[in-house]
Amino acid sequence: MDRKPDPREAYDFWLLDLDGTLVDVEWSYTREVFDRVGDRLGREFTDREVDVLWNGLTGSRDRQLEAWGIDPTAFWEAFHAEEDPEVRAEQTFLHEDAAFVADLDVPVGLVTHCQSYLTEPVLEHVDIHDWFDTRLCCTEETGWKPDPDPVESVMADLGVAHNGHRGVLAGDGANDVGAAWNAGIDAIHVERVGHERRGLCVLGDYRVQSFDEL
Q1: What percent of the chain is helix, strand and coil (3-state, nearest 5)?
Q2: Which residues pair with 168 in a beta bridge?
Q3: Fewer CB atoms near the end CB (10 Å): N or C, the chain?
Q4: How do residues 18-64 score in pLDDT, each as one tens digit?
Q5: Distance in Å from the first CA to the final CA of the chain
């Protein structure tokens, strides 16, 4: 079987997800946030439910909330009200295997569902702000992965859209893979939580548990 080329050398540009891909948050912070959100909503969240929502294990978080009988709008209002940017940043750590991004000698973009008021303090805390030539925090206006619009917007900012450049998007969820393929670029799925915990296998052009495997 032919071996795939090293993606660090095969692509003209890189796009990356943030949470669960480059960084993660200490469990104690996540658990405390969901405890406070549960108080606001009058509903307790089990550890498994917290895991599913925080890591997007079942794909669309809104669909999962609806399946549990929770109004997504009410949930996100409570969730964003309980997240403290500085505390979250302090509880965030950088995955060691993500360090290769700093050495990429091609345009690099960030495409994340993490909101801007949280993303900027996190990038500063883990000192990776200068890794990216452009950044996009998804909103209702930009669209959400797996919609290709936010990916294509970042590609346009990098000057690599629809002009023959070969690119890749690396992320930890099925939505990242879908967004990459919908935008016509390759996808790397980095499985941080494990197939058993996720309950399924996410396909991608590359499937790794650590970027070191590349």
Answers
A1: 45, 15, 40
A2: 14, 186
A3: N
A4: 999 999 999 999 999 999 999 999 999 999 999 999 988 887 899 99
A5: 17
> Is omega for the bond preceding 72 within 30 degrees of 0, making it cis?
no
Of 193, 157, 155, nearest to 174 by C-alpha is 193
Per-residue pLDDT of 91-140, as tens digits, reads: 999 999 999 999 999 999 999 999 999 999 999 999 999 999 999 999 99
CA distance 154 to 157: 5
Contact 177, 141 (CB under 8 A): no
Beta bridge partners of 23: 19, 94
* Residue in 87, 29, 30, 22 with CA at minimum distance from that of residue 54: 30
Separation between Cα atoms, residue 19 and residue 112, nearest integer Å: 8
**Burial, 142: exposed, middle or buried (Cβ in 10 Å; 0-12, 13-18, 19+)?**
middle
* Bridge-based pairing state of the strands 134-137 and 13-16: unpaired
Q: Which two tokens stand for residue 205?
A: 């052009």
Q: How many helices (H) and strands (E) does the chain have?
A: 10, 8
**How far apart, in Å, are the Cα atoms of 186 and each of 90, 128, 132, 155?**
33, 23, 19, 13
Q: Which two tokens stand for residue 206?
A: 């590359």
Encoded tokens for 121: 């303090």
Closest listed residue to residue 98, CA positions, set 126, 125, 72: 126
